[in-house]
Amino acid sequence: MKYSGFKVIKEALTGHKGWKPVWRTPKPKNEYDVIIVGGGGHGLATAYYLAKEFGITNIAVLEKGWIGSGNVGRNTTIVRSNYLLPGNEPFYEFSMKLWENLEQDFNYNAMVSQRGILNLFHNDAGRDAYARRGNSMMLAGADAVLLDQEGVRKMYPCLDFENARFPIKGGLLQPRGGTVRHDAVAWGYARGADSRGVDIIQNCEVTGMNIENGICTGVETSQGTIKAKKVAVCVAGSSSRVMSMAGMRLPIESHVLQAFVSEGLKPILPGVVTFGAGHFYVSQSDKGGLVFGGDIDGYNTYAQRGNLPVVEDVCEGGMALMPMIGRARLLRMWGGVMDMSMDGSPFIDKTHINGLYFNGGWCYGGFKATPASGWCYAHLLAKDEPHPVATEYRLDRFRRGAMLDEKGVGAQPNLH
Amino acid sequence: MIINHPLLGPRDAAEFVYKGDASLINRPNWQADDAAELFHEYLYLRDNPAGQHRELWYHEQGDRSWLIVTRNTLTHEISNVEFARDVALAERPKK
Amino acid sequence: MSQINRIEGGLINRSKKLSFTFNGQSLEGYEGDTLASALLANGHRMVGRSFKYHRPRGIFSAGSEEPNALVQLRTGAYQEPNTRATVTELFHGLEATSQNHRGSLKYDFMAVNDLFSSFLSAGFYYKTFMWPKAFWEKFYEPVIRAAAGLGRLSGQDDPDIYDKGFLHCDVLVVGAGAAGLSAALSAGRAGARVILMDEDFCMGGRLNVETLSVNDQSGSEWATQALAELSAMDNVRLMTRTTAYGAYDHGIVGALERVTDHLISSENKPRQILWRVYTKRTILCAGATERPIAFGNNDRPGVMLAGAVRAYVNRWGALPGKRVAVFTNNDDGWRTATDLAAKGVEITAVIDSRDGQPPVDVPKGAAIVMGGRIVDTKGRHGIRSITLSNGQQIPVDCLAVSGGWSPNVQLTCHQRGRPTWRDDIAAFVPGGELPQGMSVAGAASGNLSLSSVLLNGHDIGNSVVSDLGFTPSKVKASSSEEETTGISAFWHVRESKARAWLDLQNDVTVKDVKLSHQEGFRSVEHLKRYTTLGMATDQGKTANIPALAVMAECTGKSLPETGTTIFRPPYTPVAIGALAGRARGKDFRPSRLSPSHSWAKEQGAIFVEAGMWYRAQWFPRSGETHWRQSVDREVTQTRASVGVCDVTTLGKIDVQGRDAAQFLNKVYANAFAKLPVGKVRYGIMLREDGIMMDDGTSARFAENHFVMTTTTANAVSVFRHMEFCRQCLWPEMDVHLISSTEQYAQFAVAGPNARKLLQKVVDSDHDISNEAFPFMGCGEITVCGGVPTRLFRISFSGELAYEIAVPTRYGDSLVRTLIAAGEEFDVTPYGTEALGVMRIEKGHAAGNELNGQTTARDLGMGRMVSKKKDSIGNTLSEREGLNLENGLSLVGFRPVNRSEELKAGFHFISKGNTANMANDEGWMSSVAFSPNLGHSIGLGFIKRGSERLGEIVIATDPLRGGEMDVEIVSAHFIDPEGERLRA
Questions:
Q1: B25 contacts in C (CB within 8 Å)?
Q2: pLDDT, position C257
Q3: Which of C90, C152, C361, C920 is deepest in the core (most CB within 10 A)?
C-alpha cells in the first residue's frame, strides 16, 4: 500500500477502513538466509536494505519485545554528521545523505527535519578544535559553518550572552543537521522490509546461539530453534549479554543515558543547540516539547532509568545556557541503555565465528547512524566485506592500536 | 545511589567518580611473553554482566580512597563495599 | 455579576476576598480557592482548547491529574505556560489567560481543525507531507509547529530563584489524606523521624472533599485534629505544597516544594525548593485518581469527573452546574448525586451502566437509568444536554462521570515495579519489586473505602516503624462508617457514533485506538507512540487505563495481558529552573581565583576562564587598543628583560615516601628513579593505552620527597589516576600523595634579567647564581626575610626562567614585591596569551597538542618512552597503529607569504593534491603572531612531519574560506640550541 496525501483523503472519506497493518505478524520459519537479532532501528534498517539493495529477502528480524523498543524509541532524535576523524566522518555523512532521501525511499514520513545543529564553544581552544572539525567535515563533503558570537546571537537571541560563567564565543553549525521522528524510523523500515518479504517476529527472544565447529548455524529462541546461514546481531544496549552466548567478550560497557522532555510549548527554539561548557543539548519537537539530554550517569547498568545528580546536572546546563527555560516544566524523563565502547566509536564486523556478525557499540550516537549502519551492515552480510565508509569499525582495532577516539579520552567508556 | 563507605558510612554516589570493572586492579605483567595481548584484554575487554558487578569508585569529594563496590547492574542494589587497596594487597600474587 | 455559582459551605475563607483576572476579565474568589474553583464559582466553564482539534475544554478534575484546564499564569518574564488551574492556589492579583487558540478563546480560528478531524486521524502525518521533498522544512513543518505546542515561554530569563535542600528521615509519608495522616500518626507516635508531604496547600486529601465522617467528626475536622497532633511532635515535619515527584535508588525521593507560587511575588525568596529526601522507609499514600468513561462528545466543558464535581461543591462551595447528571459504573459515582442533592442542587439523572438496583437512596426528582448508556452530548461551548442510547435527551449543564478509581501507583513503578491487575476494583495496584524501602497504604494500594484506608494507613505505619526498631504506640486506628464500593468495569459506550475521547488534551479518541490496532500498533508502547495517548502534560493519568481497555477489547485479550505503560518520573511536571537550583549565570560552576587575582584586577587585567579558574589573559596598558598590542608588548618585554606570570593553576602534587622515586618511575613514561636531589625533570605521562595523558615536571627536594606539576586542565584527573596507581596497582609501595595546588602560589619569572630580579628578593644566604642554581635545579629557600619558598629553575618560555612558589597566603604580596623589585628592569606582568605565544615560539606542546589523541611519538618525544622499565602505557604504546611509518609528527609552520595569518584548524594537503579527506595529512593545532619573528607561526601535526622540514604544503581552510602555502619548519622558532635557558 502506497501512502500519500491522496490516500489519506480517500480513507478519511471512507471511514479509514482500508488501512492495513503496517507489518505482518508471521510465525517464524525453520530456516532463513539471514537472521537479524534485534528489531530496533539498526536491525530493521539492515533488513530493509538487505531486501531492497542487496536482493536478500529470506530474512527474519527477531525482537524480544516490540519493534523499536530499544534506543530508536528512547533517544533525543538528533541527526548530524559533524564528526572529526577520517574513520568516522564519511560514514556519518553517508548516513546524512540517506536521511535526506529516506522518506521518499521508504514512503513513510519520518519527519526528517534539517533545522540545523549548533555546537557552541566558549574559549579559543574550543574554537580551534571546532575549526579543525569543521574543515574535516567539509573535506568529507559535509556542510559546516563557523559562527562567531554575533552569528550565534542572531540565531538564538535567548541564550545567556550577558551573565554567563562561560561566555559563548561562537559555534560550529551544521545546517543539514536536525531531528527525525524517531519511532517513525523504526516503523518506516519495518514497513519497507515487511513489504519485501522480511519476517518481523516480535516477542521472540534469542536465548542461545547454535555454534558448531566455529560455525554459527542459527539461534535458540523463545519461539523455538531457527536456523540461518548468517546470524547478524544488532542489539545495542544488550550486546554483551547476547554475544556472551557465543562466548565473546566485547570492548563494551552498558551505561544509561537519560533524556528529558518538557511540556508542549509554542515554537521558541528553531534547531538543535549543544552547550559547550556543560552537559546539555536541546531541540524542540514538532509537538512543542523541549527534548533535551546531557551526560550518561556514568556507572555500568542495564536499568533503563537514571538518578537525580545527572538530572540536576543537565538542568543546570540548560539554565546556564538559556535561563528562559526556567519556567518550562520537565514532563518526562527516561533512560536508555547504551553500548559504550572503549573509544566511543561503533563496530560493524564479522566475528571469529563463521556466520556470526556483530553490529553495536554505538554509544549514544546510534540514532543518527541508523540508515548507514543498516546499509553498511547489509553490505557486510551480503558481500562479506565492509562497506567503504565502514572499514574502520573492526573489533580488532584495539589490538592493532587503531582507535577511533573522537573525544580523546581513552579506554574509559563513561567519558566518551 | 548511596555507597556505604567502609570508614565514612553512607555517602551519596555523587561524591564519587566511577572507573569501571574491578578487574582493572589486576594489571598484567609487562614482561610476560604475551604482554601485548594481556594488556589488550585487561584494558579493553569487559564481562559487562547484567547482575552482580564488582566495580571501582573513587571518593574524590571525600577521603580519596578507591573502593570496590559490588552492585547489581539490573537493580542497583549494593551488596558489598571494600577498600580497593585491601583487595589489591590480598590478591597480590605471592612472590 | 459575581460568583454566581458560589454556594454555602466549604473550606474557603469568605472573609478574605481575592480578585483576579481571567483573559483580562476581573473576577473574585476567596482565600482557599484554587483558580479552577474560583472560575467555576464565577460560572466559567470553558477555559481552554485541546491540542489537535482545538475543541473547547473545561475544568475536568479537581487535582493534579487535570488534562484540560491549562492556563498561562502571570505575565512578562514571570509568564508560566501550561499551568493547571486545578492546583493553582488563588491569590490576590492573579492573572491567567487561556492558551492554544488563535483569536479569542470562544472563537478560535484553529478550531477549523475539528471540521477536518477525519483527515487528521491517528498517525496521519506519517503517511503524507512527503511531496514535494523540499516542502517539509519550508511549508508543512512550520505550519505544524506553529499549530502545535500549548502555552508560550516569555523568552526572557526566569527572574525567580530556586533552592535545593537535602532531608533525612526514618519515614517519609507521601500524601496527607486519610491513609497518610494515619500512617504518619502511627510513625510519629512511635518516635520515628517522620516527614509528611502533600501536594495540596491544605492537607487532608479527600477527607476535605467527602462528607464521610471519621470518629464521629467530619473528615476535615478529623484531619485538622490529626495535623494538630502531628505538628506538636518534634520528630515530625509537615510539608504542604510539596510533591514527591520521583523515587530513586536506595530510598532517595525527589520532592518539589512550591514556596511562593501562591503569592503574587516571590520577594527574593526562592520560588521553589527541590528537596532530595534520604529515607529509610517511604509510605506511599498517594490516593487514587478517578477515570472517565468514553462516549460520544464526552469532551465538552461541563463533563467532569464525578469526584471532582462533589469536591468543588463540598470543599469550595463552587457549583460546576445547576442541572447535573451523573454517569457511573460504580457506587462511588452515586455519592456525587447524593452530596449535591443534599446541597439542594438539581440532579436531573443518574445513569448507571450496571443493571440492577440503585446502590443508595435515589436523589429526589432524578431520573434513574440502570444499565444505561450516554451515547452523545450537545452544546458548542459547554454541555447543554445528553442523549441516552434510547434516544432520550436530558438537558444538563454539568455531567459527572465516574469510571472507577485507579490507585496512584506511579512512584512504585519508577524502578522495577510493574502494577498488577485486580478485577474486583477494576484497577491496577502496586506490584512487582517496589523501590527500596517503599510500602504503599490506603487507596494507592487498592483500599477504596475510607474505613479500610484509615486502618491500612495506621497498620502500615506501625509495621514500618517496628521494622525500624521503634515500638508502635497502642493508639487504635480511627474509623469511619462503612460504605459500598461496588464497581463493574465499563470503559466506553460502543453504541456511540460520534467521537469518544480518551485523551482529552491530545485528542485521542476510541476510533484512534481502534485504527492503531487495525494498523498493527497493538503493544501498549506502540499505541502510545502512534496515537500520542498519554503523552500530554497530564501524562495520561485519566486516559491511559480506559484506552488500554479499548485496545484490550480490540485484541480480545484481558486488560492486564494488554499491559500497562511504564511510569516515568516526574509524577507531575517539575520546572527546569527548580532542577537547576542556583547553578546558573555566574554561579553555574564555582570560580577559582589565583592568589594574584586582586592584584591583577587592580592592574586592569583581562581574565579568561581556564576550567574553573579565572586567569589573567593579558594586562592592557594605557594607549593599547587591541589585545595584540598588549600581548606583543608582554612577549617582547619578557624576552628583552623580564616578565612575571601567575602559574598557580598548574596542578601540584606532593609525592612522599620511601618508594616515591620508584612510584614516579612507574607513572612517568621516562626514567625518574635516578633523578638527583635538587634537580627537576620534565616528565611525560601516558594513559594505559599509550596515548599522552599529561606532561609536567617533578622536582626532587629530598630522597623521599618530590613535587610534581601537572597541566592546569589535567590537575584533577592526574591526581585521581595517581591515587588509582598507588592504591590499586602498587599497594605495597610506600608512597603518599597530596594535592597542594591551592596551598602554593606559584609565579614564573622569565627573561634575561630574571635572576637579577630574583636576587633582589631572595634572602642573602641563598645563592641562586648560574653555578649554584643551574638550569633544572630546584631548592627550598627563603625570600623577603624568611618566607619559605620553593624555587625551580624551569622554563616554558624558552628564556632564563624560574618558577617561585610560596605558601598561598604570601602570593599576593610576592607578586607585588616582584613587580616593585623589577621596576628597574622594566618588568612586565604577562598573561596566558603571552605565555601561549612564547611556548609556541619555543615549540612546547600544550592542551591543543595534548588532546588525548596524540602519542609521545607524534609529539617528537617517542624516544623518551623507556623500554627498560614498566610504566603506565609503555606496553600498549608499542601497537602498530600508534607507530605507523607515515604517522603524524609535531612540527612548526610558517606562511610562505609572511604577511598571511595562520589559523588553528587548517588542514594540510600536499602540493598538487585535491583538498579532500583522502588527501588530508594533518592539521594546525596552535598559532600565534611572533613579535620576535614579525610573522605568524604555528604548530601542527602532519604525516612524517619531522622528515619534511622545508617542504611547502597547502594549508586549507574551507570552513572560513581560502587556503595558503605554508612551509614545514622546526617547531623551535626561538633559540633552538637552548642557550638562553642555561644563561
A1: 728-729
A2: 98
A3: C90
